Description:
single chain, 419 residues, Amino acid/polyamine transporter I, 19 helices
Amino acid sequence: MYTTGPKAAAKADLQDSAPSRLQHLLGPAFVAAIAYVDPGNVATNFTAGTTYGYLLVWVVVAANLMACLVQYLSAKLGLVTGQSLPEALRDRMPRVGRLAYWAQAELVAVATDLAEVLGGAIALYLLFDLPLLAGGLITGLVSTGLLALQSRRGQRSFERVIIGLLAVIAVGFFAGLFVTPPSAPDAVNGLIPRFAGADSVLLAAGMLGATVMPHAVYLHSALARDRHGRQEGEQRRKLLSATKYDVGMAMLVAGAVNLAMLLLAATALQGSETDGSLEGAYAAVGTTFGGAIALLFAVGLLASGFASTAVGCYAGAAIMGGLLRRRIPLVIRRVVTLIPAVVMLALGADPTQALVISQVVLSFGIPFALAPLVVLTSRRSVMGSYANRRVVTVAATLVTTIIIALNLVLIYLTATGAS
């Protein structure tokens, strides 16, 4: 279960607005940011770089800008109302609708967990030649330990560990760029929005689906609420201002890591035979950069799997607790949600194909998270004077429309096999 941060501590932090105190208010967005650098992102970004070079750089940048707005709105909802997004929806939905909404949200959470456990399993296979099933079980065990830390030591301890893993992820994927720097003119040219056929559209939609993830939207509102509680007046204003820094810094790190993945692939791996898999990307990195960089790549992937599966399970608990008012210990939930991934690994399913399927399932859940978030944060009856300004509402509506449209394209092209 999630832990509510001490309100007295939050109040003390808010009373001193000096930059040295800002660090005490940072953290929730960095936990949510793990969803933006999970194994699904690694797979899609490396595929984009090896297949199309710098062509889809603009997708990474655009997705990160969209994520900044979405995650800030989620945190703002939690801080202003004292409710997570699932809780706010629960109070405004009939029982049947609430159960149906919970079912789709849980399906998305399971799909997310599947991709993240597979990523950890693949990393352990690359590092230690462990069977994928054993790697999946170890990934589940480590994430269980992280969740136990959250339950026993509180949210801040959990945040510090997750931020540490985020730093490991960053090192793992930035290392290759110091060996072979990307072409600045080509990277700038990649900022021009364009495609190169239906396959590039499919990949761009997959990149977006792997970036703006439903469970991160649900989770961030709960993280902000649990860390700070509901504040009033001047304290609320200061906290919302600090939250902008939290979101901006976290998304900057996550966006830079995603961009590093694509640039690394575009600079040195374009045209390599990676077969679209994480194993293929690892082999190509080793061939091009040598064993040391390949080792850092695998370690970064492992940290991504460990951190993202723990955060994903945390999000699932926030969804269930918010919509159904039912809470089970996070460790028990971790064991239950691990079962689909373990079964898939035991049956010998192709992990790359499983990752693709998981991204399609995530696409179904995006409208259910984004549309209510925009509507709720735009209503004065919910947010009072902190309701979105017209320009923010228009921007958020546009972002939501673009994300939903691209994910519908992803679903269609995947179902039809169009190219």
